[in-house]
Amino acid sequence: MSRNLIVVDLETTGLGPQCAPIEVAAINVDTGETLEFVPYVDLSKVSIEPQSFAINRYFERGVYDVMLNPDETDDMWQALGAMLRDNTFAGSNPTFDSSIVLREVGGPPPWHHRLADLAAYAAPALGRDPSGLPGLADVLAALKVENRCPHSALGDAEATAKAFVKLRDFYADVTL
Predict the structure, then answer these.
(1) Predicted local distance difference test score (pLDDT) of residue 5
(2) Bridging pattern class, strands 116-117 and 88-91
(3) pLDDT of residue 127
(4) Are strands 88-91 and 21-28 parallel, antiparallel or unpaired?
(5) How many domains, the chain?
(6) How far apart are the C-alpha atoms of 164 and 48, rounded to whole Å?
(7) What local confidence, expressed as pLDDT, does residue 174 receive?
(8) Structural domain range at position 29
(9) Taking every annotated instance into account, which residue ranges of this chain make up the domain Exonuclease (predicted)?
(10) 72 exposed, middle or buried (CB, 10 Å; 0-12, 13-18, 19+)?
(11) Direct distance between the N- and C-terminal alpha carbons of the chain, in angstroms, rounded to an integer
(12) The whole model's pTM is what?
């Protein structure tokens, strides 16, 4: 069975397990299908780390203006679950994003049990040791991939997807 690589990126109210997703993007690297949404969240009822909002520029970019209502949000989480079903969940630190997505879609993970982490995938090509994995900005700089909107869900997802494609091409030419 062939699986597609689905890059998912979330912007959240913080970095801990209690954080809430405030912006979601997913890109099927193999088909080009894109899913993007701003889930409903009552900011008065969730843990907020102000630094997260400063970094992702949630208010400056007007992201809240396109926030979905609760029913639309549920529909979009289900659409994301369907997109991920039997495919490979990928991203820059996908363990963080996948735990939040799983909390929102419920049930067992619909995606394949192995996650594709860009840092681990890029490390050999960049000459990095597995104990010194690069961050997204380092990988993008090394691969000369531009992030058109850093710290936005779609900007980070697009750049991550481009990096995966560039690395796939690189590894296709490498034989042991």
Answers:
(1) 99
(2) parallel
(3) 93
(4) unpaired
(5) 1
(6) 31
(7) 84
(8) 5-172
(9) 4-173
(10) middle
(11) 25
(12) 0.95
Q: At residue 92, what are phi and psi to the nearest 5 degrees?
A: -100, 105
Task: Please report the pLDDT score of residue 175 as a whole number.
Answer: 77
Cα dihedral 66, 69, 72, 76, rounded to 10, equals 60
Encode 83-105: b = buried (16+ Cβ within 10 Å), e = exposed: bbeebbbbbbebebbbebbbebb
CATH code of residue 143: 3.30.420.10
Q: Token pair of 151, please?
A: 């710290």
- Residue ranges in the chain whose pLDDT is less than 50: none
pLDDT confidence of residue 123: 96
